[in-house]
Structure formats: structure tokens, C-alpha cells
Amino acid sequence: MNLEGRLRGLAAERYHHRHPFNLRMHEGLLSQEELRRWVLNRFHYQRHIPVKDAFILAKLGDRELRQNWIRRIHDHDGRPGEDGGIERWLRLGEAVGLDRTLLLSGEGVLPAVRFAVDGYVNFCRDRPRLEAVASSLTELFAPDLMATRIDAWELHYPWVEPEGLRYFQVRVSQGRQDAAEALALVQEWARTPEDEERVLAAFTFKCDVLWSLLDAVEHAARVGEAVDAR
Ligand SMILES: O=C(O)c1cc(C(=O)O)c2c(n1)C(=O)C(=O)c1cc(C(=O)O)[nH]c1-2
User: pTM for the complete prediction?
Assistant: First the structure.
């Protein structure tokens, strides 16, 4: 099987579309508090994406590669005077009833979510470019999951202001482009069977980052930790 096929096989088992928390989200079974807790904790992930992309940027030795990769930072941060993904996520927070100052304060982010996100940022800082870029390849599977999420939220969580879904609507096409470009790079750079194994290990690691984030959010839901809606 080729590399892409092996990634798809791994994703079928380990990507977070199969996590029980996501399954409950899609079935409409989350309470308002659970959905808020997810939005708040995922913001911690979102705000670190441009940080890990800056580490990857610094590993790309040629101008064209950097010209492309820097787009990811702009997508999230926005260019000066523009909104980007981070701003859209803050609006998602408002759409579920969370004040942006709460999200920006970092208050309420679960310890295990901090560890998972640190793990991802440090991985991208410490590993060679092949593995750092390969760890972003979960994005091959994010657009379909986001499309499912948009439908599920419209159907099951009508109390969420529709403007909040804009993050996911914009991200579907950005994610497809990012994933296609990263896959092409990884396919070009992975020359040996050992390289391919490193790609698969990086991808598995990233699936575990996303999975543990949801484990943490789900566990907090079970022990009933309150989210501060304002
Ligand atoms: O909501 C999701 O399920 C989901 C998953 C992923 C992913 O699979 O890595 C990303 C995102 N969202 C996302 O919004 C995003 O900006 C993003 C960037 C990256 C990355 O690794 O560079 N993954 C993801």
C-alpha cells in the first residue's frame, strides 16, 4: 500500500472523528455546558497552531516553501487589519455564550489539554521537517469532519448563533489546501521505508494529541466541572 493509503488506514482507526465525545456531539447529545467546554478548550489548540507553524517555517530551507507555509500563519492570525481563524474562533465562543475575554485569559483550560497542545508544539519544534510536516496531515481528514459538525450543529444545537459556524465553513477549504500541499511535501521527502515509518509515527502521535484533548474534555464533563458562561 502506498503512503497515502497507509495514512488513510491509520486515520480510519485513530483519527478523532471516532472519539466518543465527537460521536455524542454529532448525535446532538451534548449539553450546552459540554459544548462550551469543548469550544473553550479547543481555543487553546487553535491559538497554538500559528506557533507550531512558525517552528515549521524556520525549518524550511527554501524561499518558495516558506512563501507557501507562511499562508497558514496568516490564515489563523489574519494579516494586519484583517480577521483570521483565531478571531473567528473567538466569535464561535461568543456564539455559544462565552465571553472573548474568558477565552483569551486561558482560564478553564484543562491541564491535560495544556499537555496535549504543548506536546504538539514541542514536537514541531524538536523534530525534523519531514515529521513536523507529517504531523499536520490529520488535516486530510478534518474537512469532512467539519462538514459533519456544521450539519450536526445546525440540526441539534439551534441555540448556537449561526455566525459561530463561520470558522468551520472557512476552514473546510483552507484545510483541504493545507493537507494537499503537506501531503505532496511528505511524499517528496520520504525516500526510504524508514522515512515512511517516521511519517506514520508522526501522524499517529498527532492523532493521539487530538484524541487526548477530547479525553480531557469528556472526562471533565463526567466529573461535572463548571464552565464559566457569561
Ligand atoms: O476541528 C477539527 O476536527 C480540526 C482538526 C484538525 C486536525 O485534524 O489537525 C485541525 C483543525 N480542526 C483546525 O481547525 C486547524 O486549524 C488545524 C490546523 C492543523 C495543523 O495540524 O496544522 N490541524 C487542524
Answer: 0.95
